[in-house]
Task: structure prediction
Amino acid sequence: MRMYDIIKKKRDGGKLSEEEIRFFIEGYTDGSIPDYQAAAMCMAIYFRGMDTDEISALTLAVRDSGETLDFSEIDGIRVDKHSTGGVGDKTSLVIGPVAAACGVKVAKISGRGLGHTGGTVDKLESIKGLRTDISKEDFIAQVNRIGLAIIGQSADMAPADKKLYALRDVTATVDSLPLIVSSIMGKKLAAGDDCIVLDVKCGSGSFNKTLADGERLAREMVSIGERAGKKMLAVLSDMDKPLGRAIGNSLEVIEAVETLRGGGPDDFRELCLDLSAYMIELAGKGSREECLAQVREAVSSGRALKLLAEMVEAQGGDPTWIYDTDSFPKATTVSELLSPADGYIRKVDAESYGLASLALGAGRNTKEEGIDYSAGLILNKKTGDPVKKGELLATLYTTEKPEAVERAKEIILGATEIGPEPPEDMPLIIEIIRGENG
Ligand code: URA
Result:
């Protein structure tokens, strides 16, 4: 078998066999297939797509590219939540502690930023000293001790995805349904959770630009998860606008902490409570209403915030940063963007907001690039808000890339539609897709 022929077959719209898909994934993992052929393959998949059999074969090949984690040593019901990625999406930092405070076990394996979207691992690493590369034994011991751990993917787990994720990030092949499904579910199936809530984002800031794409993605993932014996539920949520007000690593951690204190932006807080309630509901903790009451109590009692601080400490970070977010290093350049007109914010292009944050240093342009944890945006106005000319739209933060500020402002202004009429109200949660057992 030759990689050249497999690329050509997909490029010409053919259906790949399980053997061909495994040849690609195994060869890319062991280094016998170089980056340039894998990149061409991803681009062929991007343009030609894959059917359900191919997606399923790709997912299982990704899962089998490394070790699978045995969570049987974790006492209790193991529940995970995974988002397909968005702008300002820091939900894991809130739902992990909230669900764990309600008595389920959250052993979470998260990713880094991808394209214009941020990643939980990068956000957590903005906390001084915090490690996301702890050993499997320590990870399991921490989950048994405090109920919660969030780590990055180890080199041994779904290594094919680790390489592909970084490659797709820099080759404009992120937003491809088969690649997203196999990336997310390949990792999820390699971990040993009992229940999985998927937060499938739809809209300009996500990898699924249309509702139909989001629905198909959700259904494919729910069905692959169920076939593997997991309890699955998917929430389709709006990502036409950034989630919350903060975009950028430490800015998002601070917003998550405010939310765990009972504050935070309304849209973000409500989504976090909803997702946490679905997580504990899947784990059998009661009816929807009972679960919502439990998650609200986990926040109001301060138990969820305390759990986040305990997790930070257990992973080598300084827990005092959670109680005093002034400890996060401040950006040295702070610049205000003012509204050029009166009216309402009718529409924003969330992807462009993510790109503006990336330009300020909050994400990577190459696989090797470092991150400016202080960089990003705080949105003062969001879709639907009235605005006056000269009023603050957003504050831009950067330490490493002050030269990018004017460009980032242009991106944001180009991505913000201000008009005389308010826009139609869109629900944040668009649809719930339950698996047969969910
Ligand atoms: N999250 C992932 O883990 N993989 C993707 O491809 C997209 C979002």
User: Anything to note?
Assistant: The chain has three domains: 3-49, 79-324+429-434, 329-419.
